[in-house]
Specification:
Shape: globular
Structural class: alpha+beta
Helix content: 25-40%
Strand content: 35-45%
Number of strands: 8
Radius of gyration: 17 Å
Strand order of the largest sheet: 2-1-6-5-4-3
């Protein structure tokens, strides 16, 4: 492949609000998976969570994220390019536009290409932490350890 796929992906990430650029860099039916395939509970907190199709959907997702948070930092620390795939790893810091709480999260992103166009993107982060940046009160109970007790957070 003659195209530097990492550079294409970086260009996409720098232009998430520019639909014209996204349409040039993505296949028309590109899939974007944000945090999970389909989680209705998380979608109530982070409406962009789940699976989306096409460049317009990606633009909508990033517009929603910027309505909910201010991005204070976004760092790519590692990149792996192999065949038609690129993986990015790093961290970001967001500040909630409603609560003012900041969250720093690791992230990983996998992109698959058809030729020199992005056809699939999967983005993972600390969803518990990012959703927690919107928490305004109350406690939640969890029982994860089979030999332990419930915990409240």
């Amino acid at each position: 492949m003659s195209t530097n796929l990492t550079a294409v992906l970086q260009q996409l990430l720098q232009n998430t609000s520019n639909l014209k650029v996204l349409q040039q860099l993505m296949t028309p039916d590109a899939t974007y998976v944000s945090l999970n395939f389909d989680n209705p509970e998380l979608k109530k907190i982070e409406p962009w969570a789940g699976t989306h199709k096409g460049p317009q959907a990606l633009s909508n997702v990033f517009a929603a994220i910027q309505r909910f948070w201010k991005t204070l930092d976004f760092k790519v620390t590692d990149t792996i390019e192999q065949g038609n795939r690129v993986a990015l790893f790093g961290s970001f810091t967001y500040k909630s536009n409603t609560t003012g709480k900041e969250i720093t999260s690791p992230f990983s992103l996998l992109a698959r290409f058809e030729g020199d166009k992005v056809s699939y993107v999967q983005f993972q982060e600390d969803s518990y932490g990012t959703a927690g940046s919107f928490k305004t009160g109350g406690t939640t109970r969890f029982h994860s350890d089979p030999s332990g007790k419930e915990v409240e957070v």
